[in-house]
Design brief:
Its EC number is 3.2.1.22. GO terms for molecular function: alpha-galactosidase activity. By secondary structure, the chain is of the alpha+beta class. Strands 2, 10, 11, 12, 13, 15, 16, 18, 19, 23 and 24 form an 11-stranded antiparallel beta sheet that branches. Strand 32, helix 11 and strand 33 form a beta-alpha-beta unit. The chain is globular. It starts with a strand and ends in a 23-residue tail after the last strand.
Length: 742
């Protein structure tokens, strides 16, 4: 008997149910062969139930009819250690694996999911657990997504480590010949070419194995958080594994499960690519997945801000009511959407009450005034930091983390000596969650900036300084190594809880909270709206270029619209150049607004309005492409970004001339419709640059002239609508004039 699931609405099928076939995607079970197949028009993955477990026996690109699984017998499917004993999907010595059941489910627009339930026992070691493997396939993407759960059903604790929840033997060559020379690996957000073997870490949320002779590739996606990621490529012949840190790594994964406790892994995906331009593996299939299926928080909002202002510079922590009221008045004519009060509004770290010495009437009059002037207020807060002088710190000293010497610890590193890190796996979690909710409700906040380390420091280089060496006070981790995963898990859960109660709240997770300098990944996007980065600020023109380098380096994997890069100032000599640079990501400024001339404010308002209106029509902020056309910003070249939305057939074109002697360059514009006609206008003024056919833009290219070095040109591109010919009303016929009667 055969079972399948198809796109017919929200369906749920289990063993014994039958669904009708579909042209889009389906999951199918052949009881005779004991095989599952996940299939759409692009890829097909076949799984074989065996006496030892479950294995992928075929992963085929249906466009090329190529199966990238060369030797199914070598596929481990999953791999981890239980109490130090290795276990894989093809079995392991001493383990008995029993197939229990499977289910197939679907949510319209979110793909179909296969769940396979297995029971695993190791009688001699008193190890018993339920293992569930999940596989997801979508209608129009050449990938499958995967994760697992482990539930301890025995009486003894289970310690899980060395985890790959996706482990396959994938080969783009002729039977594994010349693996280290025939393929390239594009790592570090897809920008660094290297060769296998390779182990991906923090910056490898997605990496590409590419065969340049065949123009084929395999994209490996790892949705684990920050420093926990581990993606190994051809460590052992053609084996690839997607998981978290091993015991020998700097940031290993460990999890102890007591009886009836369940662990759920992050997710992974494997996407097959065919195309002449390897960058398209990121710019097309991956970008579509991140935009439509990943669960990117920012893209759940129908409307997003154009520009932010943050008080960090020049005010520092020296905030007060009259000063900020004046700032609001200065900002109002600029068209800024969000005004963020950074560090300095609070009485003490940890207590997070408004400092009534600076704000005698509280913050509510100020936040009301911000809204009255057409802006939305936001607030900065250190998620897991408290002073030892705070009321909560003195009352609950056991919530503080310890270092390896058993002393109270600051993960953040440098800073005030009396600031330490609280563990999110203690009752601090509920305490700080309620604090944030109260602040949001009492002050009508639309944005919260969550800062400073909670699991790992962005600045401390010794991995033993990460995590928590303390136990007790409700902590569920048994040691420092276990604390790493748990603290990241709790960080994500806290942001999810905030979103559940305040779905319209914009959450900014800074790179310091993330735990890697200027780091961001797919895990962060699923829990926060924005990733807060920091510019190097090396002079004005170099600062603009450094900002675009940050965007370029990450934008192939992470949507540039989710990046908030701080520290650039409105009051610097080349602030306008910096503004135009930020249009390739998201605009966020600091600086002394009082120094701006009325003409500067009018310039800002015009640009903010122009970009907001363009985004309303095209949603260009969800797109960012450089492809093989626009290089990394450097001292003497041109760079830029194509922010074109093919679904709305329009967007924003960003071009930057650095210290290049060339005043004109020609760039092909990819993504346009060859048969279409497009109107291109100058940013800010809406002056018409010209009309071009899609074929011209694709093949001949768009000529762009920037007369001066270190300047920019931003252009809108939208479908050309031919003006209707003016209607000429027919002139009524007049009677001939009658001759007067004599």
């Amino acid at each position: 008997m055969k079972y399948s699931l198809t796109l017919l609405g929200i369906l749920f099928a289990s063993v014994g149910a039958l669904a009708q076939p579909s042209a889009q995607q389906r999951i199918h079970y052949d009881e005779t062969k004991r095989q599952f197949s996940l299939e759409n028009s692009l890829v097909k993955r076949v799984l074989q139930l065996t006496p030892s477990g479950l294995q992928t026996v075929a992963y085929t690109d249906l466009r090329t009819k190529t199966n990238v699984i060369r030797d199914p017998n070598r596929v481990r499917e999953i791999a981890f250690q239980v109490n130090g004993i290795p276990f894989t999907g093809r079995g392991a010595a001493g383990f008995a694996v029993t197939y229990k059941t499977h289910t197939i489910s679907e949510k319209v627009g979110q793909g179909s999911v296969l769940r396979v339930d297995l029971q695993v026992q190791h009688p001699n070691r008193f190890i018993v657990f339920d293992l569930s493997l999940y596989y997801q396939i979508y209608a129009d993407l050449p990938l499958t997504r995967k994760w697992l759960t482990i539930r301890n059903t025995g009486g003894d604790p289970l310690r899980i480590s060395e985890l790959d929840w996706e482990n396959l033997n994938l080969d783009l060559t002729a039977g594994g010949v010349g693996l280290t020379t025939a393929v390239d690996v594009y790592a570090a957000y897809g920008r660094l070419p290297t060769r296998p073997p390779y182990i991906g870490r923090t910056d490898d949320a997605a990496l590409l194995i590419h065969n340049p002779e065949q123009n084929t590739g395999i994209l490996l996606g790892n949705e684990a958080p920050a420093v926990m990621k581990r993606t190994h490529v051809y460590r052992d012949s053609t084996e690839v594994g997607i998981g978290m840190g091993f015991e020998a790594d700097d940031f290993p994964f460990q999890k102890t499960l007591l009886t009836d406790e369940t662990f759920t892994s992050p997710k992974a995906f494997v996407s097959l690519f065919k195309g002449a331009v390897w960058q398209d593996a990121f710019a097309q299939d991956l970008a579509t997945y991140v935009r439509t299926q990943l669960g990117t928080r920012l893209f759940a909002h129908k409307k997003t801000p154009t520009a932010f202002y943050n008080t960090r510079l020049p005010f520092g922590r020296n905030l007060n009511g009259p000063q900020l009221k004046k700032l609001v008045d200065e900002l109002a004519p600029t068209g800024i959407d969000y005004l963020i009060l950074d560090d300095g509004w609070q009485d003490n770290y940890g207590d997070w009450n408004v400092d009534t010495r600076k704000f005698p009437n509280g913050l509510r009059p100020l936040t009301d005034y911000i809204r009255a002037k057409g802006m939305t207020p936001g607030l900065w807060l250190a998620l897991a930091t408290a002073a030892d002088t705070s009321a909560v710190g003195q009352e609950h000293a056991d919530w503080f983390m310890n270092n390896r010497d058993g002393q109270r610890h600051s993960l953040q590193g440098s800073g005030a000596k009396n600031l330490y890190t609280m563990s999110l796996d203690t009752p601090w979690f509920d305490y700080i969650l309620q604090k944030i909710r109260t602040l949001v409700d009492e002050h009508g906040l639309g944005y919260i900036k969550l800062d400073l380390a909670a699991a790992c420091s962005a600045y401390r280089l010794n991995s033993s300084d990460a995590g928590d060496w303390a136990t007790g006070a409700g902590r569920t981790y048994a040691n420092q190594r276990e604390s790493l995963w748990r603290l990241y898990e709790r960080t994500g859960q806290l942001m999810d809880s905030l979103k559940a109660s305040h779905p319209n709240l914009l959450i900014d997770c800074t790179h310091e909270l993330y735990g890697k300098a200027n780091g961001v990944d797919l895990w962060l996007l699923q829990h926060a709206d924005y990733a807060g980065l920091a510019s190097n600020r090396i002079g004005a023109s170099a600062g603009s270029r450094a900002l675009r380098q940050l965007t370029y380096d990450r934008g192939q994997v992470v949507p540039s619209g989710t990046l908030l890069t701080g520290n650039l100032r409105l009051d610097e000599p080349l602030a306008k150049q910096q503004y135009l640079s930020m249009a390739s990501s998201t605009i966020v400024f600091t600086g002394d607004v009082a120094k701006l001339l009325p003409t500067d404010k009018a310039w800002l308002k015009a640009w903010n309005g122009w970009l907001a209106a363009l985004n309303e029509r095209t949603q260009y902020t969800r797109f960012y492409q450089t492809g093989d056309v626009l290089p990394r910003p450097d001292t003497h070249n041109w760079d830029g970004a194509i922010r074109f939305n093919p679904e709305r057939n329009g967007g924003l074109l960003c071009f930057y001339r650095n210290d290049s002697p060339e005043a004109t360059r020609i760039f092909p514009i990819r993504g346009v419709k060859p048969a279409g006609t497009y109107l291109i206008r100058q940013g800010g003024t809406n002056a018409v640059v010209g009309t071009f056919t899609g074929q011209q833009l694709l093949t001949t290219g768009l000529p762009v002239t920037i007369p001066n070095r270190n300047e920019a040109s931003l252009l809108s591109i939208e479908p050309f609508v031919k003006p209707e010919a003016a209607k000429v009303e027919p002139i009524a016929a007049k009677e001939p004039a009658k001759m007067p009667v004599k």
